[in-house]
Amino acid sequence: MAGRPYRVPPPPLVVSLILVAAVLAGCSVARPAETTRLRVLQMNLCNSGMAKGCYTGRSVDRAAEVIRAERPDVVTLNEICSGDMAALEQAMTQVHDGTVVAAFQPARNGRTGDPYRCVNGQQYGVGVLTHIAVPEGGHTVHNGFYPAQDPADPEQRAWLCVEASTVYFACTTHLAYTSATLALAQCAHLLDVAIPGLHARTRYQPTVVSGDLNLRHGGSPDVKTCVPADYRHRHDGGVQQFMATADVTIDSTRSIGMAGTTDHAAFLVTLTTSRQPDPAA
């Protein structure tokens, strides 16, 4: 028609792309869950020198050999002396690039309030070694003592967690051996109070707990009664237990001989963690 400019309509593909762009501009695109493959190695080294039936003085050297052979990402350690951590941390750094964190938590002497001691005078307790592969390598150490302790036993039990920032929590503990009922109460405190409190105070991340609980699957009491219903759970057939939050997939478990250097085989768990990325990132 005379006097009116004629506009050529855009092709259908251009219209489609414009509509898609408009839709995407008004909503966020879901990002896939981030997964991390981990190998968690639990060892009770009986290295205090107090338990004569299992002390050999050779368990730390054997533990270092196992670490170098198996290349775990997390090592949880029970019945060790504070000086043992240096040799085991060195073994971890020999097989991993990036950041290796070594954390130690002594038991407490209930009679003096001081750290409990090995026969050699070093502090006695539990430890965690973690390899943090993410570039920033940030970490925080968390620990505490159980409110329920055996008044007849001067050794007061503790728990220890390493927070590998933006990736996972790795925790260990060694529970009371004098009473299975007391060990069960300590287990319940760790899983129902301490770890949920940790998540509330910091941020939620996939969490693994591995240690000598002095409780058995199928025992009386049964360790299962202190494990939350949505947790993953595996055991070595004895008192070493592995537990993890529901966003962890357990791929395999395996016991590893310690060549008679301690009274517990090492317990290796291979797993995959899954976490949703931070939407603000």
UniProtKB/TrEMBL annotation:
Q: What Pfam families has UniProt attached to this entry?
A: Exo_endo_phos
Q: Which InterPro entries match?
A: Endo/exonu/phosph_ase_sf, Endo/exonuclease/phosphatase
Q: Tell me the PROSITE patterns matching this sequence.
A: PROKAR_LIPOPROTEIN
- Any idea where the Endonuclease/exonuclease/phosphatase domain is? 59-218
Which top-rank group of organisms is this from? Bacteria
Indicate what this protein is called per its UniProt record: Endonuclease/exonuclease/phosphatase domain-containing protein
